[in-house]
Amino acid sequence: MLVMEFKAVLKEPQRLAINEAIRTARFVRNKVLRYWMDNRGTGKKELYRYNTQLRDEFKFVRDLNSHACQASVENVERAIKRFFDNCKKKIPGKKGYPRFKKHSRSVEYKQSGWKLSPDKKSINFTDNKGIGQVNIKGTWDLWRFDQKLIKRVRIVQRADGYYVQFCVKVENQEQLEATGFTIGLDVGLKEFYTDSDGYSEPNPRFYRKGEKRLKFYQRRVSRKKKGSSNRKKAINRLGRHHLKISRQREEHAKRLVRSYRKNKEAFMVSRLCIKGLNLCY
Q: What are 132's strand-pairing partners?
């Protein structure tokens, strides 16, 4: 499965409609989870039947695409299954009991409720939430894939705007020539990693470098009145800086992995598991 992400170019009514769709998906998830808590032993079919009852009872739920509501039920189902699997495996500590969501930042559509334009530069959401046609921009070649291969479409809200993700069912494997070289990597704290050839990659410490600016933005948030527009703006600035640091870390790790994949046939990474104080490979 290949996930391609594009930046969404939105107008203010579309932003409000997307926020309403996200709140509706969160409402369905929390209601289904409460139904499971109150009726122990409830199976998969009963959860989907209760979802149908919610659509009949609430108009704002009915306005959201039915497959988007089903995706929220699937999230609850996965959380329940993960909890019982952890109990069976007797994992030490907390088992991950399903919890209600207070903040959610995405709504997921399956293969209905949306339609791509012929040039693949915009997507039209056809449910009754009023999102409408959304222009997308990015560097992925979405036009190369048939629309039938797109199994999921997800709208994600981040600090710097909204993004549209496409989950495409394709084989994402790059064929590389065998080099005959293998290498081992030891991930650490002082150094980012040390390989078996003796080379040590220095730790970039993106968080420590941006910590001074984070403190500044955090003080700005704490000085604003709770519930005010200025506090929301200050929270957004803080979130943008956290997002920048997160992206720096991710891109740095991807760059290093690409360099090893091209030159080495295989590599093994070891790290210290804090829970059991064992080496994980």
A: 125
